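for the recovery benchmark. tokens below, seq after
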């Protein structure tokens, strides 16, 4: 009878079949109801299967009963049994005849296209025979049944394929010759295919058969060489399959395959790293070298890098310290591969990679590293110092190490120069270390040679590293950098060319813009050179492109835009001595752009710089606002006509009393910038508030009608906000600026009367009068006089006189 395909069919059958002898009753054990393998006879002449009767006697003993015959219940004097040799031989002869008959029947049934039930019955008989008498595997081979069973793997029936896999498992178990027969041709490839295409039961049977084959060392290479075998097996071990047996058998199969070093390497490339790491830890020196070399070129994700560092990091560092150059090379390349992630680099630092790494980099003498390996050492060091892990980088700048780095940079090729510059980039990113680097560069005068790298065209990585380094140095060496860039033709133009490249915004462009942004804004010579190379035209084009969404770049856009705005603002510091600055700002309507940039919410520095630029532009408005020509007086025909009113000129600027516009004279009033600047007085960032207040104060400067300026501020609700800035007293600089503006506002009598009623304002002015610097105290004193908190003696004394 044939049961369901999933394995519920019993392999036992009592049906008489053609060519098969009847089972004689004497062959059947009364206890097991099965044909006996080792019949034994009791003292009363009854015969049983040895294993069954011994189990029965044990049950009697455990229950405290005397031994008895299971059939007659007769008490026995002894549990001794005698082997029934004649019966055993008869059964074996009978079984051999029947097995031969069954194998012959199976051979006739195992063909594709035969009735499925006949095929399944034949497979069952083969399993029965192999399980009952192991010696009959020779008979299976003689009938070439293995090849016929293998052919059943091509059946369209899941049931047949599943039972064929089970049958092959039984046939080859513990039989090396049968395994060799099975492994011939494409059978192993078929089993591998079943790992991904068969249902769960079939997949389990396939992986179980592969596990059995993998016990043969000669077949491991065969399995490993099948395309997809290793990756599928590794995938099964890491899957969340509900079939635990599949995962376990796949794992044990891979363990058997680990005897081959080449297979171990392939496993590692598919994510199963532990075997490779184990050989680095415990293998021979030759094996360690082979595995470390492979590890150096292996693609690893970040989790894998941490695992490798934790498992074999110390072993790799030990290899790096060895005197054998191939071992050192393999270790360095492997360490380089795992040092590029913060987590793994932290592990390497903790296990002590830095001292031998630095020694290898700087050491010159017997057995020193060749320059190509010094490049690898420099790469590892660059990776480590540029990670986010906050270790004490100051130790790397002691003992003249920065000077050694600078020396190597000057005396090596581009590849290692790039990595050494990246080391300096990492060191200058650390507040504690950057001071030492700056000091060494200033002392050695190396800034000139460092600046030269910005002109490199054939090595983009080298140029990027140099620009990032100069960007990090620029807050501490802005004047030296400006001098170096002015001294050599072409370098400033190279940086501008990088900024203006028509590509998605890159890290290099952001760093180049940041570098120029840090240079002294009042360096007129530098501004003139920037004008000469057309820098400002290119920068304003980039700014507008970003604002309008025409230039994109996810990671570096904000930093790039901030740098561009800061560079552009420097032109507003050159009005006094450079006519081209005014002409440029008029042509490109720079004032309008900065007003728009005031609304860059969330970008504090851009808002601050824009307000500072608007202050400079507004201060220049006085010089640019033009008083219109009055019409000539008409001829007096009579004495009455000469007494008429002079001509009235309309459309003049309220604050500058001339003809103004945002584009031509940079007038904040005409550009409707006052309300926007007032809005920023509530900003959380004190620097933004200070810059906005400074821009507004340009409307109250000497030479302007203060009353008109105050009126304009009042219309924009600016006075209330300015007084709030004063009373909040957040920083000394902001207080100083606020006191100056408030004193101007209080010159208007009716406002002074109202403000005098505000105790908070009075208290803030008194505090500035008592605790401010000399100039602030003077201005605060005048403000207090305006609100009658301090007597105005200059007005009283003339009356007394």
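predicted aa per position
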């Amino acid at each position: 009878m044939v049961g369901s395909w999933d394995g519920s069919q019993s392999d036992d059958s009592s049906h008489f079949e053609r060519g098969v002898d009847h089972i004689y009753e004497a062959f059947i054990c009364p206890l097991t109801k099965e044909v006996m393998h080792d019949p034994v006879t009791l003292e009363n002449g009854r015969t049983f299967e040895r294993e069954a009767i011994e189990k029965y006697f044990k049950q009697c003993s455990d229950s405290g009963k005397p031994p008895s015959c299971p059939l007659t219940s007769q008490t026995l004097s002894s549990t001794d049994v005698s082997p029934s040799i004649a019966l055993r031989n008869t059964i074996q002869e009978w079984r051999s005849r029947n097995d031969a008959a069954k194998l012959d029947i199976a051979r006739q049934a195992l063909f594709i296209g035969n009735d499925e039930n006949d095929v399944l019955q034949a497979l069952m008989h083969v399993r029965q025979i192999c399980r009952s008498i192991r010696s009959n595997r020779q008979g299976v081979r003689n009938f070439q049944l293995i090849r016929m069973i293998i052919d059943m793997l091509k059946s369209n029936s899941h049931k047949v394929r599943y039972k064929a896999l089970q049958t092959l498992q039984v046939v080859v178990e513990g039989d090396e010759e049968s395994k060799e027969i099975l492994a011939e041709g494409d059978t192993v490839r078929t089993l591998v295919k079943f790992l991904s295409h068969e249902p769960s039961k079939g997949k389990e049977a396939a992986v179980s058969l592969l596990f059995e084959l993998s016990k043969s060392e000669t077949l491991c290479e065969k399995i490993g060489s099948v395309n997809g075998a290793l990756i599928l097996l590794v995938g099964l071990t890491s899957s969340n399959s509900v079939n635990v047996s599949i995962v376990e058998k796949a794992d044990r199969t891979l363990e058997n395959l680990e005897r081959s070093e080449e297979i171990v390497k392939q496993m590692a490339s598919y994510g199963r790293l532990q075997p490779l790491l184990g050989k680095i830890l415990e293998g021979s020196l030759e094996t360690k070298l082979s595995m470390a070399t492979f590890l150096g070129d292996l693609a690893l994700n970040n989790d894998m890098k941490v695992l490798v560092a934790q498992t074999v990091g110390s072993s790799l560092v030990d290899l790096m310290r060895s005197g054998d150059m191939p071992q050192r090379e393999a270790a360095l390349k492997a360490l380089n591969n795992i040092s590029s992630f913060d987590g793994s680099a932290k592990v390497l630092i903790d296990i002590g990679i830095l001292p031998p790494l630095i020694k290898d980099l700087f050491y010159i003498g017997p057995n020193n590293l060749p320059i190509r390996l010094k490049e690898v050492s420099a790469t590892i060091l660059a990776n480590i110092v540029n990670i986010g892990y906050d270790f004490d980088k100051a130790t790397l700048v002691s003992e003249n190490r920065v000077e050694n780095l600078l020396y190597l940079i000057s005396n090596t090729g581009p590849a290692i120069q790039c990595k050494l510059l990246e080391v300096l980039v990492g060191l200058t990113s650390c507040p504690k270390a950057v001071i030492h680097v700056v000091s060494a560069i200033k002392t050695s005068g190396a800034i000139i040679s460092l600046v030269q790298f910005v002109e490199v065209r054939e090595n983009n990585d080298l140029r990027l590293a140099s620009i990032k380094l100069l960007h990090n140095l620029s807050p501490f060496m802005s004047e030296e950098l400006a001098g170096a860039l002015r001294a050599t033709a072409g370098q400033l133009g190279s940086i501008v060319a990088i900024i203006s490249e028509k590509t998605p915004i890159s890290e290099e462009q952001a760093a180049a813009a940041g570098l120029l942004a840090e240079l002294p804004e009042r360096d007129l010579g530098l501004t003139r050179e920037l004008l000469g190379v057309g820098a400002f035209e290119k920068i304003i084009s980039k700014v507008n492109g970003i604002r309008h969404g025409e230039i994109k770049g996810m990671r570096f856009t904000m930093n790039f835009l901030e740098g561009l705005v800061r560079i552009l603002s420097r032109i507003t510091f050159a009005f006094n001595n450079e006519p081209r600055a005014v002409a440029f700002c008029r042509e490109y309507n720079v004032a309008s752009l900065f007003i728009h940039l005031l609304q860059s919410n969330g970008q504090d520095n851009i808002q601050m710089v824009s307000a500072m630029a608007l202050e400079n532009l507004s201060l220049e408005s006085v010089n640019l606002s033009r008083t219109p020509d009055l019409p000539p007086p008409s001829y007096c025909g009579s004495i009455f006509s000469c007494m008429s009113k002079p001509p009235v000129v309309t459309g003049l600027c309220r604050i500058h009393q001339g003809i103004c516009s945002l584009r031509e004279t940079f007038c904040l009033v005409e550009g409707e910038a006052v309300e926007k600047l007032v809005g920023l007085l509530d900003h959380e960032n004190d620097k933004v508030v200070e810059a906005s207040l400074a821009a507004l104060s340009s409307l109250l400067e000497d030479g302007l009608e203060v009353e008109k300026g105050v009126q304009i501020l009042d219309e924009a609700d600016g006075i209330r906000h300015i007084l709030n800035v004063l009373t909040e007293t957040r920083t000394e600089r902001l207080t100083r600026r606020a006191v100056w503006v408030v004193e101007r506002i209080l010159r208007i009598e009716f406002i002074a009367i109202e403000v005098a009623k505000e105790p908070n304002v009075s208290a803030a002015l008194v505090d500035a009068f008592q605790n401010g610097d000399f100039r602030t105290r003077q201005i605060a004193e005048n403000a207090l006089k305006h609100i009658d908190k301090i007597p105005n003696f200059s007005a009283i004394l003339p009356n007394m006189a």
